[in-house]
Amino acid sequence: MRTLRKRSLIYGLPVFTIVSAHSVEVVGRTFEHKDTLKSSFKLWWKGESWKGKYRVGSPLLPRLISYCAKNKLRLLVDGESTASEATESEFDYESDYEQQTIQHKSVKGGGQPLQGFSLPVETKALGFVTESVKPSETVSDWGQFESLLGNDTPYSEARQEQQHLLPLITEKLQEGYKNIIVECPTGSGKSALAYWLPLVFDTSVYISTPLKGLQSQYVQDHPFMSSAMGRGNYDCALSEAELEELDLENCSAANAPCRVIEGFDCPHALKQTDIEEVMEGLPFETVCGYYDAYAEALKNRWFIGNTTYLTAMKMFGKPNLPTRPLLVVDEAHTTAATIEKFCGFSLSRKRIARLLYGKKPTQQESNEARLNHDFPSIKSMKVDTPDNERRADCIQILLMLRALVKEVEINLKHRNYRPDEMADAKAFVQHAYMMLSELQHNWKKWVYQFDDDDVKNVLRVEPLSVAKYAEDCFLSLGNQRVFMSGTIVSPEVFMEELGLNPDESVYLKVTESTFPSKKRPLALSQKGGLMIWNKEAQGIQFSDLKKTAEAVAKIAKHYEGHKGLILPYTDGIESAVVDILSDHHPETAARLIQHTKNPKEREETLRKFKEGDGDGILISTYANQGYDNPDIRFVIICKLPFLSLGDTKVRLKMQHNEEWYQTYTVRTLLQQYGRAMRSKDDWGHVYVVDAHFNHWFRTRNIERLIPPYIMDAMK
């Protein structure tokens, strides 16, 4: 396009004296956004990027600028980038694992243990068995557990599911099974089971949850449980003079010498040699607030933490968490994915610069980081990448990491970081060493991918499976383990994912729900569009997106005065639905509530939505599972939650076991369904509007994976 002298700025872009239209080009990791780029923004795929033209003043241009910024896509307008620097990525920062905790100080109490029950000295390989549990049947052996209820305990009565499950879990633990896998519907009272089990056997337990929110709920309902707080909540116990001598003034326990200086022997720290005495209840005296709280948590019968924190403390903690007789894993269907994320490695260019130069590197420092520690000149691994090429690529990644770790270690040694930066750098080094060993010895078990092979802002290195690592990283925290979830779906897939020996495992499945099905219908009759990839359209067709938005508007109209939740599953679908509703159903669009990818902003939006009044409708790709809001009366599932087969790891895992792929889809769908109703007296309606549902359900024989009480709710 011919241009003359610049005259003014519109949308932050240069406007010239002779301009009839702006040429636009979108590059980056556009695969999951292709339907939105084509349908909502009227762009076309031109071999390597999405291109199009907008007239001057077109309202689509500012929308596209906002969309690309939100989704980390690079946008060129008239050949010039719209952003002066790359947008923020979730991989730009690596959270210090010891900050992934909640603030809670336990109180005394918790109830009296039972007599007459004991755990076996050794577990046994008794052979895999499955037992069904029907809460409607009469319970014959609850009487021996009746004393767990009372005024001095959190519970005055037990639910039907609990009266069946607690005796059965107790029986299987006493028989010597190592792994008790329990599938029970929402509202069964899993947290009470986690509370009762150590009282039954008069022993101690680790309780693991995937999310800090669920951890908070546990300690709110059971204030006597201990939740070790992260180091950042405590000051360092060393004197100002001692810290000044180490060039670490005004530091917290998170960046104290015992954490960031290799080999530093703090006189106030809890040592590995102290663990046995502490576990026996003997006093441990220290002026360090962090280690005092850590010792108290180790003495507590109930030690609760999220899975990432417990895994990190098992691997890197000083001292390491010791094994307890019991480990109870709540929302256990997330465990494999959480360990995968912990063991994996994600690194962005911005994070490299911050590791080298601190949290706010200058542009020159960022350029130097890219020059001296750039990603290797390789392509993302594909399903058909030859082994010799994979091996060579892994060596290049390994060499890059070694060089980066060396620089970070030098910075740590010479105290080149601010106190609030040192813990993050130390955590990076610990994690990197684990990764270096794996890339050197087990490279065939890992997948490496860039966010985009041309842009290369983020490198992800992930394990194909954590079956080999789960025991050492996490599961060995308990000599016997109880896994609880409403969405195990396939015990075979669950055991394979975590490397559990079937002969040491038992599967207890609750086949009924005490929630009336008429209060929790799963409606399939309200059809939207066919939400699948269309080859000709290079994405979901706009006509199907419009049908889905129309279905959303129709459903929302029936629930005026009530809160709702829309689960679009992808950012592209979310943006398309919002745009179509804004254009054609402004009354529905006015009720929509969205959040960004920023964790703090997201949590604040979710909190305000939960606590606020009105009939707002949250539309979110984040709230598929673990989001609890009792005021939500309807949930709309726009698209079946298939994992992207464009992801190399997903494709390889599916090739290994297609049942894993279908199991994951059903798990996510059932978690989405569970967002609508959380108690027996509650009510909530769920709509699956993806027109692809019936074909998928029939051709993949999905009924075999759906619990009977969900089938009863299908309308």
Would you kindly provide a written description of the structure presented here, covering whatever features stand out?
With 715 residues, the protein is an alpha/beta fold. Among the domains are: 76 residues, no CATH class; 70 residues, no CATH class; 118 residues, Ferritin (Up-down Bundle), CATH 1.20.1260; 195 residues, P-loop containing nucleotide triphosphate hydrolases (Rossmann fold, 3-Layer(aba) Sandwich). It is built from 25 helices and 23 strands. The strands form 5 sheets. The chain has a 7-stranded parallel sheet. Strands 18-23-22-19-21-20 form a 6-stranded parallel sheet, sandwiched between helices. Strands 4-5-3-6-7 form a 5-stranded antiparallel sheet. Helix 21 links the parallel strand 20 and strand 21. The longest helix is centred in the middle third of the chain and has 27 residues.
Distance between the termini: 56 Å
Low-confidence stretches: 1-20, 84-93
* Number of DSSP E strands: 23
Strand content: 15-25%
Nearest-integer average pLDDT: 87
| Shape category | globular
Radius of gyration: 27 Å
The CATH class label of the domain at 517-711 is: Alpha Beta
Structural category is alpha/beta
Please list the strands of the largest sheet in the order they lie side by side. 8-17-9-16-12-10-11
How does CATH name the architecture of the domain at 517-711?
Answer: 3-Layer(aba) Sandwich
